Amino acid sequence: MLKARQRGEYGNANEIHLKSARYHRGMLLRLADVSIRYPAAHPGGGERPAVDGVSFGLAEGEIGVLIGPSGCGKTSLLRAVAGLEPLAGGSISLGDERLGDAATGRHLAPEQRRIGMVFQDYALFPHLSVAQNVAFGLHDLPRAQREQRVAELLDLVGLGSAAKRAPHQLSGGQQQRIALARALAPAPRLLLLDEPFSSLDVDLRERLAQELRAILKRTGTTALFVTHDQLEAFALGDVIGVMHRGRLDQWDSAYQLYHRPATRFVADFIGHGVFAPARIVDGADGPRVHTPVGDLSDLEECPLSAAYPGGECEVLLRADDIVHDDSSPVKARIERKAFRGSEFLYTLQLASGERVLAHVPSHHDHQLGEWIGIRAEVDHVVTFPRQPS
Ligand SMILES: Nc1ncnc2c1ncn2[C@@H]1O[C@H](COP(=O)(O)OP(=O)(O)OP(=O)(O)O)[C@@H](O)[C@H]1O
């Protein structure tokens, strides 16, 4: 039986679009071919759209996360969903409602979208108490119901006792929880969060990310989150979108992004790894891949040699694909090492000059310059065309 990659079910940027289209069925939030352009600052500038033909869908109750390097268009996309940026192309729908459509010029005003937002700077009103901040979007409710809803939300974020305090009397993490309670109070159809933890310290960020996920799941809230922090994305998201230069390279689970990156950019952006020259040859018992760290065989997933001219390609070798094994005939010299607690991240140079990375348990504390034995243990082979050197 052909393996998934051999059947070509993923791994091709053109197919991502089709896959996104498939995602659209039964989705609450649907983006179809969305493009956003800013006016050019200089004559002839602004040729490239800030967001370029992005499509994806988010199911009810799901948490989606957009990640990517600075300037890749994450915030622009989030702002377009909120109604704060006009669409240059494509459409955005929420449930049965078309929020924006470049073809018809439809643009529902932000306040009519019933979308909640949380930003990195909390944006609490300093002159209002915590309870008044949370009650801000609840003007239409009778007083008793409003007070009950505020109490519920403050309990939900674990700050029931802070109702009468002023925002400045709270820590950054507490203020961000109040901002979350305020955004959730009117029961938005969708919650948008733009780097809500970026001004907090690392420990607190991790804890708050877990708390936030629990709160969103408990309330069944559908949320779209922007971050540049991979670990935060993995901790929070059911589905993660990797953006690159305005395009969505892949919209998938964390597992798929790591093990089956659709593009070279995603492979490079997620996790530690290198691309090594390789050649695929077809054998009776399946394809075999010649790599600088030895042959890979008995593979769960691997393209056939015909996928590349002469079978010549580049193979992704992640740090956790390389195992330290002194009995291996393949030797590599330790060029750099970074302590990561339970393990070291070694940068190794092979006799051929190729470099690979390896996670090695930290009780194997070898010296820089030392030669150690390594072998590759790879289940899913990820390959890309050779890049001209
Ligand atoms: N108001 C604006 N006017 C002109 N260009 C803009 C505007 N806002 C964003 N851009 C440009 O659009 C592109 C995408 O920006 P955006 O803020 O969406 O990226 P981002 O991925 O959120 O980046 P970061 O992580 O740094 O916030 C960038 O090239 C940016 O310079």
TrEMBL record:
<dbReference type="GO" id="GO:0015697">
    <property type="term" value="P:quaternary ammonium group transport"/>
</dbReference>
<keyword id="KW-0547">Nucleotide-binding</keyword>
<dbReference type="InterPro" id="IPR008995">
    <property type="entry name" value="Mo/tungstate-bd_C_term_dom"/>
</dbReference>
<dbReference type="GO" id="GO:0005524">
    <property type="term" value="F:ATP binding"/>
</dbReference>
<dbReference type="InterPro" id="IPR027417">
    <property type="entry name" value="P-loop_NTPase"/>
</dbReference>
<dbReference type="Pfam" id="PF00005">
    <property type="entry name" value="ABC_tran"/>
</dbReference>
<keyword id="KW-0408">Iron</keyword>
<keyword id="KW-0813">Transport</keyword>
<feature type="domain" description="ABC transporter">
    <location>
        <begin position="29"/>
        <end position="270"/>
    </location>
</feature>
<keyword id="KW-0067">ATP-binding</keyword>
<protein>
    <submittedName>
        <fullName>Putative transport system ATP-binding protein</fullName>
        <ecNumber>3.6.3.30</ecNumber>
    </submittedName>
</protein>
<dbReference type="GO" id="GO:0043190">
    <property type="term" value="C:ATP-binding cassette (ABC) transporter complex"/>
</dbReference>
<dbReference type="GO" id="GO:0015408">
    <property type="term" value="F:ABC-type ferric iron transporter activity"/>
</dbReference>
<dbReference type="GO" id="GO:0016887">
    <property type="term" value="F:ATP hydrolysis activity"/>
</dbReference>
<dbReference type="InterPro" id="IPR050093">
    <property type="entry name" value="ABC_SmlMolc_Importer"/>
</dbReference>
<dbReference type="InterPro" id="IPR003593">
    <property type="entry name" value="AAA+_ATPase"/>
</dbReference>
<dbReference type="InterPro" id="IPR015853">
    <property type="entry name" value="ABC_transpr_FbpC"/>
</dbReference>
<dbReference type="InterPro" id="IPR013611">
    <property type="entry name" value="Transp-assoc_OB_typ2"/>
</dbReference>
<keyword id="KW-0378">Hydrolase</keyword>
<keyword id="KW-0410">Iron transport</keyword>
<keyword id="KW-0472">Membrane</keyword>
<keyword id="KW-1003">Cell membrane</keyword>
<dbReference type="Pfam" id="PF08402">
    <property type="entry name" value="TOBE_2"/>
</dbReference>
<keyword id="KW-0406">Ion transport</keyword>
<dbReference type="InterPro" id="IPR017871">
    <property type="entry name" value="ABC_transporter-like_CS"/>
</dbReference>
<dbReference type="InterPro" id="IPR003439">
    <property type="entry name" value="ABC_transporter-like_ATP-bd"/>
</dbReference>
